[in-house]
Amino acid sequence: MIKNKKVVVVLPAYNAAPTLEKTYNEIPFDIVDEVVLVDDVSKDDTVEVATRIGIKHIIRHPQNRGYGGNQKSCYNKALELNADIVIMLHPDYQYTPLLIVSMANIIANDLYPVVFGSRILGKGALKGGMPMYKYIFNRCLTLSQNILINQKLSEYHTGYRAFSRQVLETVNYEANNDDFVFDNEMISQIFMAGFEIAEITCPTKYFPEASSINFSRSMKYGLGVLNVSFKHFFFKLGLNKSPIYKTKK
């Protein structure tokens, strides 16, 4: 715990067996109370590795629900465990678990209700091996999103995110897409609900075992991201009535 607030780390997993144990071993358990792993029908022995290393809360989807669907299960379980702070960490070891302490402290001290680990702040992305086309794609999308959403994030596409319980109990993430665009729908919801997002510099690693989407999926993702940003823009103008902006409270 931090400041008497329960910290739960959630791991959305798909074929994470080669990197799961290394990721888990670096989680700072002096502040983390629980770990939840949601397996989205992996084709390897992710669940067996999770069981062996001692993860107590393991959810197995009976059929593949996608990255967004996986996160929905993660957050629902974390709230069920009475988490005050929920940190999503990819079990592919692309993001260092060592930043959990910093991210949790920002929320625990009521500085910000949401914290992102940004690969773009500083020079960590290219230094860590991010392909140049992905870096350019990331920068162009982020610029477009900042203009349409009227914010100044350095990156909208990080998978390293921490939320206060209040945020997860407010935004209607269950209404979001089950694919990768879920992340950007959630950002849009967070800003629309009046919450602020802090960012901290996060080193990243690209290697064969790290999860990544191919070029065609990246293009589909990019179009989906722009669609979300335009929905946000038009909703603010009163020209769009998307149900994702209806809060749970």
Account of the 3D structure:
The protein is an alpha/beta fold and 249 residues long. The chain has one domain: Spore Coat Polysaccharide Biosynthesis Protein SpsA, Chain A (Alpha-Beta Complex), CATH 3.90.550. Helices cover 41% and strands 14% of the residues. It has a 7-stranded mixed beta sheet, sandwiched between helices. Strand 1 (7-13), helix 1 and strand 2 (34-39) form a beta-alpha-beta unit. Helix 1 runs parallel beside helix 2, helix 6 (132-149) packs parallel to helix 9 and helix 8 packs parallel to helix 9.
Strand and helix layout:
Layout: E1 7-13, H1 17-25, E2 34-39, H2 46-53, E3 57-60, H3 66-80, E4 85-88, H4 100-108, E5 114-118, H5 124-127, H6 132-149, E6 161-164, H7 165-170, H8 182-192, E7 197-201, H9 215-236
Parallel strand pairs: 1-2, 1-4, 2-3, 5-7
Antiparallel strand pairs: 4-6, 5-6
Helix pairs in contact: 1-2, 6-9, 8-9
Task: Jot down its keywords.
Spore Coat Polysaccharide Biosynthesis Protein SpsA, Chain A, 249 residues, single chain, alpha/beta
